[in-house]
User: Fold this.
Amino acid sequence: MPEDLEGLKEQYLRCVRCGQCRSVCPVFEVVKNETATPRGKVFLAHLLATGEIEANSQVQAQLSRCLLCRSCSKECPSAIPVHQIVTAARAELAVKVPSPVKRLVFRKIWTRPRRLALAAGVTRNIQALGLDKLGLYLRLLPPGFALPGRLPRRPAHTIIPAITPATGETRLRVGYFLGCSTNFLFPAAAASTVAVLSSLGCEVVIPPELKCCGLPQLASGEAAAASALASANSEVFRRLNVQAVVSDCASCTATLKESPEFDGLKVTELSELLLELIQKYSPGLKQIQKPVTYHDPCHLAKAQGITAAPRELLRLTCMDFREMDGAADCCGSGGAFALYHYRTSMSILNKKIANIKKSGAEIVATSCPTCIMQLRHGLAAHGCKTDVVHTVELLGKTLGRET
Assistant:
């Protein structure tokens, strides 16, 4: 279980309100209100823990205005883990001010793969009938409902075998953690991940009983549900006797790495593993000719500190790799944040879109499915034809393993 507010007491008491966090908070940059600052949320959590303020929906609303991007945690001169404090405060509020809708979604549906697949199927049918567009037009649905775009006809787990053998000599047996977003929204990225790993000598195992990584539950205050998911998933991988667990989702990978339930299991970030295999075995690469830029997902760059490996991969696979300004700036997605605070999310995204345009790139590569979803939505809204893909999809093309 993540630490509760009492367990983080020493951390939030160290906040001296210096305001350094204000300079990097993407939400504050847009909202321009002290209550939206990281230090404001830390203070609010402190008051909540001491009982100086009552747990209510207003406090809940204030603490929901955080992307959990970790920009402030990384910048804080006192090394205060602001994201952990906000997550703990949300968990306390979820107990004291429970939301029936959130509990239904994050505890009853999202934790059970069959129910989640059923919900995705219902959404697919709604989209096929055009009811989503009608609901958005009549404002019966929140604008964030348009973010995922049209769901693919089949999720990844129905088209990729449970075990894919290595092409040639087997050098490594890896467990592939197929996250919810990749599975339901980007099955082509999942197919590329498996194909690329296989071509580099990995036997890839996708356990059919995998569940959500637990991040949506943690972010929504359902800490117990998140721990139960981590326990179930870790047990699955231990039984498979894999040498490493990988995921093409930066958020899933960060969550697995930080889960105590995964202690003793080797969780490896995908781009680092792919770069290591390419440098070791030197496969032939046919470079992409179009100009390509890269967006750093927060859960890769800030949560895991990984920025070099994906860029090295892109320099190997792309003839014209270009850095864009603000590559490490948050895109404003933040999982459900874009659903709850759509306008703020889009305002944060606009800055990223402007930097993508300025780069002149025809392709944006990144390593997180929710970032792909957010960037595609923003580029389409601005009338841009720039493509957004997962880094592993470009690598698949250069290896001749297009899916």
In short: The mean pLDDT is 95. The beta strands are 163-164, 172-176, 202-205, 244-247, 267-269, 288-294, 318-322, 363-366, 387-390. The two ends are 39 Å apart (CA to CA).
